[in-house]
UniProtKB/TrEMBL annotation:
GO terms for molecular function: metal ion binding; potassium:chloride symporter activity. It comes from Veillonella seminalis ACS-216-V-Col6b. This is TrkH family potassium uptake protein. GO terms for cellular component: plasma membrane. Keywords: Cell inner membrane, Cell membrane, Ion transport, Membrane, Metal-binding, Potassium, Potassium transport, Transmembrane, Transmembrane helix, Transport. The chain crosses the membrane at residues 9-29, 35-55, 67-88, 130-147, 181-204, 235-256, 268-291, 396-417, 466-483. It is found in: Cell inner membrane. It is a multi-pass membrane protein.
C-alpha cells in the first residue's frame, strides 16, 4: 500500500469538487444571491486538493489495498468539503448537521435535517441536488471515466466502490466501461430534464428533480414538490419511469444500444427487479383500496409511486404514508431492504444478492435431502463462482449486524424501538425515508447528535457496500504498511558505516 498514490488520486477528486462548488455560487449571482460560503469552501478544498496532488505520486498500478483506501478516503474527504457551504453559510446550526446533510447528499440517501426546505435559497437547494447527482453514479466511476493513465489495475478502484458481483468485467476495459456508464448517466439526465420541462415543471424545479431522480436521492427543491404536481399525471409518471431506470443495471442499458430492448429481458436480475416492484405495488394498492378508502385509481398511483421510490432509494414522497394501513407500511418498510440492481445508483442489499441468497438456500435444502448432489448457482446461463456466493452470504450477515448494532445505538439516544429500526433501515439502505417523527411530516433534525453521527457512518457504509470501509478496521490491512514504515525509519537513523564492517 502506497500512501502517495492514494494522496494523488484523492487530491484530483477534491480539486474537481472544488470547481463544482462554484456552480451554485455562479447561479446565485444570476438570481441576486451572493453566498461566499461556496467560495470559501471551494478555496479550502482547492488548497487541500492541490497539496495532496503535489505531494502525491502518480502511478498506473494499484493494489487492492490502494483501492480500498483511495475509495474510502475520497468519499470521506468529499463529504467533509461538501458540508462546508452549509456550515459557513449558516444554513445549519452546527457542523454535525452540515455533515449529515452533505453525506446524505453525496451518498444519494436524501434524509434531511433541514426543517423547512422552502426557507433555503436557490443556491443551497441547487447544491443539495448537485451532491446527489455527483455521488449517484459514483465518484470513483467519475475518476475512472475522465482521468487518463490510471492503468489496468484501476479495476481495484472500481470494485472497491461497489462489491456487488459483476460477471465478465475485464480489468483493462474498466476505464472504457466507466466512461460508457457516465455517458448513459448524462443522457438520462438530459432526457429527464427535457421531459419534466415539457410536462410543465419550472426549469429550476426540473433540474433539481432530475438530479435527485436520476441519482435516486430524495432532496427536493421545495416541500411537497411531488404533491404540488399531483394533478399533473405526466410529471408523476415521468418521475416513476426514471426512478425505475435509475434502479436498473446501467451496463444492461449499454447492452440495449448494442442488442436492442431484448437485452433487458434477457437479464435475469432485471426481470426479478421488475417483478419485485410489481408485486410490492400490487400489495400496497390492495391495502390502500381495502383499508384506507382510496379509489382504485388513487390506490394504484400512490402504490406504484411509493414502492418504486422506496425500493430504488429515491426517497420521493406522494402523500402521507404515515397514516396508511399497517400492511401498506410493512411493504414499504420491506422495500427499503431490497434495493435495485447491481450497477445502479441505488443502495440496499440489491436484487442480485437476493437472488443468490434464495438460490443458495434452495440448493442447501436439496442437499439436505440428497447429500451427494452437486449443483451450482447459475444466472443468465453462467455458473456463479463459489467465492461470490460466499461473499454474498458474508455481506448479508454484515448488513444485518450493522443494522442491529446501529438500531441499538440509536435507540440508546432515546428514539423509540420502532422508529430506531425504521431509521436505520432507511439510512443504511440509502433510502432516506422513515416513519413517525422521521416520516414525511417530520425531519431527521430531531435526532440526537450521537444518532446523527451513527447515521453518517451508516450512510457511508451503505453506499460503499460495507466491505470497503469495514476492511480498513482490520489490523491486517495496516500491518504491512506500519512494518515497512518502521524499517524505513530504522534505515534513516542508522549511523553511516555501521551496516558494513571491513
Amino acid at each position: 500500500m502506497r500512501i502517495q498514490i492514494v494522496m494523488r488520486l484523492v487530491g484530483q477528486l477534491i480539486l474537481i469538487v472544488a470547481g463544482i462548488m462554484l456552480v451554485p455560487f455562479v447561479y446565485g449571482l444570476t438570481v441576486g444571491e451572493s453566498y461566499f460560503s461556496f467560495v470559501a469552501a471551494s478555496l479550502m478544498a482547492a488548497v487541500t486538493g492541490g497539496l495532496l496532488y503535489y505531494y502525491g505520486q502518480p502511478s498506473t498500478t494499484y493494489s487492492l489495498r490502494d483501492g480500498f483506501l483511495t475509495v474510502s478516503s475520497i468519499w470521506i474527504f468529499v463529504s467533509f468539503f461538501a458540508s462546508l457551504p452549509f456550515y459557513f453559510g449558516g444554513v445549519l446550526p452546527n457542523f454535525i448537521d452540515a455533515l449529515f446533510e452533505s453525506v446524505s447528499g453525496i451518498t444519494a440517501t436524501g434524509a434531511s435535517v433541514v426543517e423547512d426546505v422552502d426557507s433555503l435559497s436557490q443556491s443551497f437547494v441547487l447544491w443539495r441536488s448537485l451532491t446527489h447527482w455527483l455521488g449517484g453514479m459514483g465518484i470513483v466511476v467519475l475518476v475512472l471515466a475522465f482521468l487518463k493513465n490510471l492503468g489496468a489495475d484501476s479495476a481495484h478502484l472500481f470494485n472497491a466502490e461497489a462489491s456487488v458481483p459483476r460477471p465478465g468485467i475485464v480489468m483493462p476495459r474498466i476505464r472504457s466501461m466507466a466512461f460508457k456508464l457516465w455517458t448513459i448517466y448524462l443522457l438520462f439526465t438530459a432526457v429527464c430534464f427535457v421531459a419534466l420541462c415539457l410536462a410543465g415543471m419550472s426549469y429550476f424545479d426540473a433540474i433539481n428533480m432530475t438530479f435527485t431522480t436520476i441519482a435516486t436521492g430524495g432532496y427536493t427543491p421545495n416541500t411537497g414538490v411531488v404533491d404540488i404536481y399531483t394533478e399533473n399525471w405526466p410529471i408523476r409518471w415521468i418521475l416513476i419511469f426514471f426512478m425505475v431506470l435509475a434502479g436498473g443495471n446501467f451496463t444492461v442499458y449499454y447492452a440495449v444500444f448494442q442488442r436492442g430492448l431484448k437485452a433487458v429481458w434477457q437479464d435475469f436480475e432485471y426481470r426479478m427487479y421488475l417483478l419485485i416492484l410489481l408485486t410490492g405495488a400490487l400489495i400496497v394498492m390492495y391495502a390502500l383500496y381495502m383499508s384506507d378508502n382510496f379509489t382504485l385509481s388513487a390506490s394504484f398511483n400512490r402504490a406504484v409511486f411509493m414502492i418504486v421510490s422506496m425500493q430504488t432509494g429515491s426517497g420521493l414522497v406522494l402523500g402521507n404514508y404515515d397514516v396508511w394501513s399497517p400492511l401498506a407500511q410493512m411493504m414499504l418498510f420491506m422495500s427499503t431492504f431490497f434495493g435495485g440492481c447491481s450497477g445502479s445508483t441505488t443502495g440496499g442489499i440489491k436484487v442480485i444478492r437476493i437472488i443468490i441468497l434464495i438460490k443458495s438456500s434452495i440448493i442447501y435444502l436439496r442437499k439436505a435431502i440428497h447429500p451427494d448432489m452437486v449443483q451450482n448457482i447459475t444466472i443468465n446461463g453462467k455458473s456463479m463462482p463459489q467465492k461470490w456466493v460466499q461473499m454474498t452470504q458474508q455481506f448479508f450477515f454484515l448488513y444485518m449486524t450493522v443494522f442491529a448494532i446501529s438500531a441499538l445505538g440509536i435507540s440508546a439516544t432515546g428514539l423509540s424501538f420502532g422508529e430506531s429500526l425504521q431509521c436505520v433501515a432507511g439510512i443504511l439502505g440509502n433510502v432516506g425515508l422513515a416513519f413517525g417523527s422521521l416520516g414525511p411530516e417530520g425531519s431527521f433534525g430531531v435526532l440526537h447528535p450521537v444518532a446523527k453521527f451513527i447515521c453518517v457512518l451508516d450512510m457511508l457504509l451503505g453506499r460503499l457496500e460495507l466491505f470497503t470501509l469495514l476492511v480498513l478496521l482490520h489490523p491486517d490491512f495496516w500491518q504491512g504498511y506500519f512494518l515497512k514504515r518502521r524499517k524505513r525509519s530504522y534505515k534513516v537513523w542508522q549511523p553511516v558505516g555501521t551496516h558494513r564492517r571491513l
